[in-house]
């Protein structure tokens, strides 16, 4: 099944977001600080992979899209391709992205596009992702001086990638400025409760990041993609 | 970060409405709220539950193996305590 081309670009962009973040979270398998958290991150990764499969299937063949595209053809946000860093970076990335995804999917779930079904199902998954990131942000921000310092550092490092999320996607009937305002209210609320300082750096403009939706990606993305695609490229059509 | 300082929690899961919570296992978590979330991820990811309890393991008092005989043996030869003399109504499955 393919959608009307009007929502192709949006499905591709949101599908790539989910796919790439899923792979990043999967990198914690075997490396997470505690077993319980490893399973939690893997669950989130699998939720996102499920979303990516539905979204990419709306556009074309999911395997071809995931494993045989070049870096410049991916339309994901630069935020989701950022390396895991320490646990605080992973959670700051998740808090920023899951808040965006929850607000966006909530809107999409009430619409009437090929994405409506997926959005209605995924919004519950994503609400849990946000809840998980929020609880950790509160504990790390309001924890020890070391955890506070790291969480603050992570929130600031990723702040400049957050403006890109609100570039309008073609074919979606969304009030983007309102979405951004809601996102800011939600995220700043969490950061303040976590005794963290809301970063002051730019989120848009020349000093901010963000051309992922146009196919321009940051340096770590190429290495991630090489790891993600090498098996399929080395053994085309392999199954088990 | 290690779990050395994290307390142990016992997890009880209710699989369906009408059933009681059953012990599912244990896990480490920094506090009760996170223990609930970890329990959700570890013990209900295959749709096993509709409700979860977490209890600090230290709050549980267990019978000891030494007390096994005085505790349990006396009930072994008292078949009249089993309610076998009436029929269970149809449709009651979990009595």
Automatic annotation (TrEMBL), chain A:
One of its GO terms (cellular component) is cytosol. GO terms for biological process: phenylacetate catabolic process. SUPFAM superfamilies: Ferritin-like (SSF47240). It comes from the Bacteria. It comes from Streptomyces purpureus. This is Phenylacetic acid degradation protein. It holds the Pfam family PaaA_PaaC. InterPro entries: Aromatic_CoA_ox/epox, Ferritin-like, Ferritin-like_SF, PaaA_PaaC, PaaC.
From TrEMBL, chain B:
Gene3D superfamilies: Phenylacetic acid degradation B (3.10.20.520). InterPro entries: PaaB (IPR009359), PaaB_sf (IPR038693). This is Phenylacetate-CoA oxygenase subunit PaaB. The gene is paaB.
């Amino acid at each position: 099944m393919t959608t009307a081309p009007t929502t192709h670009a949006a499905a591709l962009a949101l599908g790539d977001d989910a796919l790439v973040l899923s792979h990043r979270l999967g990198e914690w398998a075997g490396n997470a600080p505690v077993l319980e958290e490893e399973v939690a991150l893997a669950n989130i990764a699998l939720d996102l992979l499920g979303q990516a499969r539905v979204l990419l299937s709306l556009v074309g063949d999911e395997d071809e899209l995931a494993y045989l595209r070049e870096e410049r053809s991916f339309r994901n946000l630069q935020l989701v391709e950022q390396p895991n860093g320490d646990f605080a970076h992973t959670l700051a990335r998740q808090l920023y992205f899951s808040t965006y995804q929850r607000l966006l999917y909530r809107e999409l779930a009430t619409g009437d596009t090929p994405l409506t079904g997926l959005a209605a199902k995924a919004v519950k998954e994503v609400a849990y992702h946000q809840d998980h990131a929020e609880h950790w942000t509160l504990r790390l921000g309001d924890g020890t001086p070391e955890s506070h310092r790291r969480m603050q550092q992570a929130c600031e490092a990723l702040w400049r990638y957050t403006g890109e999320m609100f570039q309008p996607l073609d074919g979606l009937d969304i009030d983007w400025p309102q979405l951004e305002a809601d996102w800011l209210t939600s995220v700043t609320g969490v950061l303040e409760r976590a005794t963290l300082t809301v970063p002051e750096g730019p989120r848009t403009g020349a000093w901010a990041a963000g051309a992922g939706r146009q196919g321009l990606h940051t340096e770590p993305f190429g290495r991630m993609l090489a790891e993600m695609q090498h098996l399929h490229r080395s053994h085309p059509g392999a199954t088990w | 970060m290690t779990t050395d300082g994290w307390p142990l929690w016992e997890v009880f899961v209710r699989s369906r409405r009408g059933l009681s919570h059953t012990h599912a296992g244990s896990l480490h978590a920094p506090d009760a709220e996170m223990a609930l979330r970890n329990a959700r991820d570890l013990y209900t990811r295959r749709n096993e539950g509709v409700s979860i309890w977490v209890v600090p393991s230290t709050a549980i008092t267990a019978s000891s193996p030494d007390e096994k005989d005085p505790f349990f043996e006396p009930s072994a030869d008292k078949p009249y305590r089993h309610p076998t003399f009436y029929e269970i109504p149809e449709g009651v499955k979990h009595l």
